[in-house]
Automatic annotation (TrEMBL):
Protein name: Olfactory receptor
Domain G-protein coupled receptors family 1 profile stretches: 44-295
Compartments reported by the entry: Cell membrane; Membrane
Family as reported in the entry's similarity comment: Belongs to the G-protein coupled receptor 1 family.
Species whose genome carries this gene: Pelusios castaneus
Protein origin, superkingdom: Eukaryota
Membrane topology reported for the UniProt record: Multi-pass membrane protein
GO MF: G protein-coupled receptor activity; olfactory receptor activity
Function statement: Odorant receptor.
InterPro entries: GPCR_Rhodpsn (IPR000276), GPCR_Rhodpsn_7TM (IPR017452), Olfact_rcpt (IPR000725), OR51/52/56-like (IPR050402)
Coiled coil: none
Length: 312
């Protein structure tokens, strides 16, 4: 195993990713469902992108945000899966220090972007249901562009200190990471310096990104549900609720595993390491795999475009 070092050094040339410690003999078998999820994510998200691009009737705010969600999911899953499979299939565990910092940046960056897109989709559903007559005048193309840029800038700039802080830490213990990718808390544990500023910034990020996003989404859906329950007939309530049910499923699919993984990091000292690592991989792979399926099955316009494409 090359690159292992337990002597003093400031910046290692590389780290060693162990994969899933304790389950090394099962790596090949574990890779099968992970590879299947990644393949499904690639096919599903590219399908969503192609349908929205080719179908003129889908050139609307909701579907623009869905395209952004698809691109984010593709980048997020691709940022971990190829290296993970190289560990499982070829025992290629070494990762360059700069590549590790790149992973350490891209993963929380695109998680933040995905959270922002879910907020944008909640806003779209809020306006469409609570103020439908003004939907086209409120969510114009310039407004959609501004929201998209805000989501991208927030996700990319707020996480920017992560790799810079990580590059400044001295690593005098080991360069072995018990994980399948360079997760920020896992790299943080290797530093042999006062890392309180990094811990505080991680808490600051938690308070600045997911907490406000969840609060806004909760407020939006409180108003949406009030508007739905005020409709005169049961059929109208069911039909209207159906227009946002896919978004609700995606929200739960994203936030529940994310919160669970964060809690196991901070409070799960008794959680087996292999369980934590598998969970940390699943919450980055399952949403990209299921998001296009959920929207494809539950969104009538996408489903009809997929079943009856133009020219058939």
């Amino acid at each position: 195993m090359s690159g292992v070092n337990t002597t003093n050094f400031m910046n290692p040339s590389s780290f060693i990713l162990l994969g899933i410690p304790g389950l090394e003999s099962e790596h090949v078998w574990i890779s099968i469902p992970f590879c299947a999820m990644y393949t499904t994510a690639i096919l599903g998200n590219f399908t969503i992108l192609l349908i929205v691009i080719m179908e003129q009737s889908l050139h609307a705010p909701m579907y623009y945000f869905l395209c952004m969600l698809a691109v984010i999911d593709l980048v997020l899953s691709t940022s971990i899966l190829p290296k993970m499979l190289s560990i499982f299939w070829f025992n290629s565990r070494e990762i360059n220090f700069s590549a590790c910092l790149t992973q350490l940046y891209f993963i929380p960056c695109f998680i933040g972007m995905e959270s922002g897109i879910l907020v944008a989709l909640a806003l779209d559903r809020y306006v469409a249901i609570c103020d439908p007559l003004r939907h086209s005048t409120i969510l114009t193309n310039p407004v959609v562009v501004k929201i998209s840029l805000a989501v991208l800038l927030r996700g990319s700039l707020l996480v920017l200190p992560y790799p810079f802080l990580a590059r400044r830490w001295p690593y005098c213990r080991t360069n072995i990471i018990a994980h399948t990718y360079c997760e920020y808390p896992s790299v943080l544990k290797l530093a042999c310096a006062d890392i309180r500023i990094s811990s505080y910034y991680g808490l600051f990020m938690l308070l600045l990104v997911p907490v406000p996003d969840v609060c806004f989404i909760t407020f939006s859906y409180t108003q949406i549900l009030r508007a739905i329950f005020s409709l005169p007939t049961k059929e109208a309530r069911i039909k209207t609720f159906g227009t946002c049910s896919s978004h609700l499923c995606v929200i739960l699919l994203f936030y529940i595993p994310t919160v669970f993984s964060s809690l196991t990091h901070r409070f799960g000292n008794n959680v087996p390491l292999h369980f934590h690592i598998i969970t940390a991989n699943l919450y980055l792979l399952v949403p990209p795999m299921l998001n296009p399926i959920i929207y494809g099955v539950r969104t009538k316009q996408i489903r009809n475009s997929l079943i009856h494409p133009k020219g058939t």
